[in-house]
Specification:
alpha/beta, 196 residues, globular, five-stranded parallel sheet
Length: 196
């Protein structure tokens, strides 16, 4: 009997849910203060006429676009659209910057072009080590923007580069991404509470 048939499909599904639930329960109390701190920064930015700039790679790029869609559109209730941009969404910018500079600059160049002091830059990295996320956070810090890092593992250099660090210390990228999405939903719910 090979490894694929030794464990039933149902057992694998149950194990994924069990691990995900356990990590969510562990993280609920561990990160709520940093989540609330990020929400306060985003609320202050929006109140000052600023915007949220979100970025990451792969699944984190999808999470960046998911978050900005919830902000610009709506999360759970009707209200005005909120200023948020996913720096992962424009293929022409991403490919031109990667071609003309390097891939490490695909987000930082957009921070330079679009970022203002009153904005919030939110970088997502499940490893905490994505060079282009780090470069963008450094560019945002240099402009005096508030920076937020949403990381996994030990947070790496990206966690250290941000003013606010929300870390999910787990080795599985999939489990970290699942908690990241819950964090994103919590941020959207709290920001939306203060908007008409």
């Amino acid at each position: 009997m090979d490894a694929h048939t030794a464990v039933s499909d149902a057992a694998v599904v149950q194990a994924v849910f069990d691990e995900t639930i356990a990590l969510h329960q562990r993280m609920r109390d561990a990160i709520h203060e940093s989540v609330i701190e990020a929400v306060s920064a985003i609320r202050a930015s929006l109140a000052a006429g600023g915007k949220l700039l979100v970025f990451g790679n792969g699944g984190s790029a999808a999470d960046a676009q998911h978050m900005t869609a919830e902000m610009v559109g709506r999360f759970e209730r009707e209200r005005e659209g909120l200023a948020a941009i996913a720096l992962t969404a424009d293929a022409s910018i991403l490919t031109s910057v990667a071609n003309d500079f390097t891939f490490d600059w695909v987000f930082a160049r957009q921070i330079e072009a679009l970022g203002k002091r009153e904005d919030v830059a939110l970088g997502i990295s499940t490893s905490g080590r994505s060079p282009n996320v780090l470069t963008a956070l450094e560019a945002a810090n240099a402009k005096g923007m508030k920076t937020v890092a949403l990381t996994g593992g030990d947070g790496g250099v990206i966690g250290k580069a941000a003013a606010i660090h929300i870390n999910v210390p787990h080795p599985s990228t999939a489990r970290v991404q699942e908690v990241h999405r819950t964090v994103i939903h919590a941020i959207c719910a709290l920001v939306e509470r203060t908007r008409s």
